Amino acid sequence: MTKLHENENKVDKKKLYYIETWGCQMNEEDSEKLAGMLENMGYTKSNVRNESDIIIFNTCCVRENAEFKVYGNLGELKALKKSNPDLIIAVSGCMMQQKGIPELIKKKYPHVDIIFGTHNIHRLPELLNNSLQGKSTLIEIWDAEGDIIEGLPIQREGDIKAFVTIMYGCNNFCTYCIVPYTRGRERSREPDSIINEIKELSSKGYKEITLLGQNVNSYGKDLNNMSFAELLRLVNQVEGIERVRFMTSHPKDLTEDVILAVKECDKVCEHIHLPVQSGSTQILKKMNRKYSKEDYLGLVEKIKSKINGVALTTDIIVGFPGETEEDFSETLDLVSKVEYDSAYTFIYSVRKGTPAGKYETQVPETLKHERFNRLVELINSISERKNREFKNKTVEVLVEGYSKSDESRLTGRTRTGKLVNFTGGDINLTGKLVNVKITEPQTWTLQGQLICD
Ligand code: 5AD
Ligand code: SF4
Fold first, then answer.
1. Is the pLDDT of residue 4 over 50?
2. What's the CA-to-centroid distance between 174 and ligand 2, angstroms?
3. Which of 219, 322, 324, 401 has a C-alpha 20 to 30 A away from that of 160?
4. Residue 173 has what DSSP assignment?
5. Going by CATH, does the domain composed of 394-450 fall within 2.40.50.140?
6. In this structure, what are the phi and psi dihedrals at residue 217, rounded to the nearest 5 degrees?
7. Nearest CA to ligand 2 atom 5
8. pTM (global) more than 0.85
C-alpha cells in the first residue's frame, strides 16, 4: 500500500476545473478523486466547460460508441484552446489504456496537453504542474497496475450516498470485454482501509454506501483473511450508515455466504445486480461466463427463496457473435422467468484485442437493433407490471432532496433501488428514512405521498 502526501503546489488565484465522465461507477469514483486532487491544489469546480482553466475527459471504452463521443468532444475543444491558449486539456481513463490510442490522440488532437491512464490517476498534480511549465503533449500511461494508492483526496458528488471501491481490476476475461486489459488484475483493498473510509463518511453524514468492484464476490481472494460476505458483515456494523449496496456480482462467484449475509445484515439492501449477459448456454460458453442458463436460473431461485422481497437487476448483451434467433429466444425466456426489476441492455460492440472481436460470425447491425428493441419492450413490460404491484403500498425511502424533474417533489429510493418521487415533505427530510405511500406507479418511477407518523 502506498500513502500519498498532500500536494503542496497550490494555484494562486481562483482557477476552475471541469470533469466529464463516461462509463461505469468506477470511473465516476476515479473522477471524484481527480476532483479531490484539483481541489487540494486550489482549483474550484465548474459546471461550465467553456469557462474552465482545466478540462478533463475521463473516458470509457467498454463500447465503441463511448469512444466516438470522446473523439467528438475532443474535436470541439480545438477552437476553445485556440481562443484560450492557457487552457489545459487532459484525457484519462480506460480508453487511454488501449494500445495506440494515446499516440492517435496526440497526433489528431494536438491541443490535448495531458494523457494518462487508469493506473496512475494519483499522478495528476505532478503531470499538471509539468504541463503548466511546458508545451508539448505529456503522455504517461502505466501498463501494470502497481500498488493500491490509499489516502487520495476525494471530492464526492453527493452528500447522502457514496461509492466506496473495495477492489480493482478483473480476472475473468469474458471474451467480449476490454476491462481486464484496461483495469488490470484483481486487487482487494485492506478491510481496515475500507472500514475507516466508511466510518469517516458516516461522520460526515453519509447514509448509504455502495461497495464497488468489477466482481465484488472475488473480494479478499488475494488477502487470505477476509471474504466478501465477512466484509459485508463488518460494513453492516458501521454506526450511522443506514444502507449498504454492492455491485457487481458475477453469478459464478455469488456464494451462499453472501446470500446469507444479505439476508441477515439489516443495512444490506435486498437488491442484487447479477449480470446474466445471455440466456443461451452456448452463447454463455462462447462468452467465457462459466455458467449455464440452468445454473443461473437455479441461483436466482436460491436468492429469491432466501431473501424476502429481493430485487434483481442485470446486464444483457444482444447480438454477440454467432447469436441465432434460437439463442436470442433463450434470453427472452430467461428474462420472463427471472422477472428482473430492471435491466441494462447493450448491443454487442466489437472491442479490438478481445477474443470475440476476432470471431467471424458477427451479427448484422440491423438484426442486433431489431433484437435489442424486442428485448427492451419485454423488460419494460415486466418493470411496469412489477411496479403496478406497489399501488397503495407503503415503502421506506431514503430522501435525497428535491426531484430534478419536478422541484415541488422530494425524491429518493426504496431499499430495492426503485426511484420514488413524492409530495408532503420539505428539504429538511434530506438524508432521512421516511415512509411513502405509492399512489401512482409508472414504468421507471413510483409517485407517492409522504406518510407522517
Ligand atoms: N459490447 C457490448 N456490451 C458490453 N459490455 C461489456 N463489453 C461489451 C461489449 N463489447 C456490457 C456488459 C457489462 C456491462 C458493463 O457492459 O453487459 O456487464
Ligand atoms: Fe468484463 Fe467479465 Fe470482468 Fe465484468 S466480469 S469486467 S464483463 S471481464
1. no
2. 6
3. 219
4. -
5. yes
6. -70, -15
7. 172
8. yes
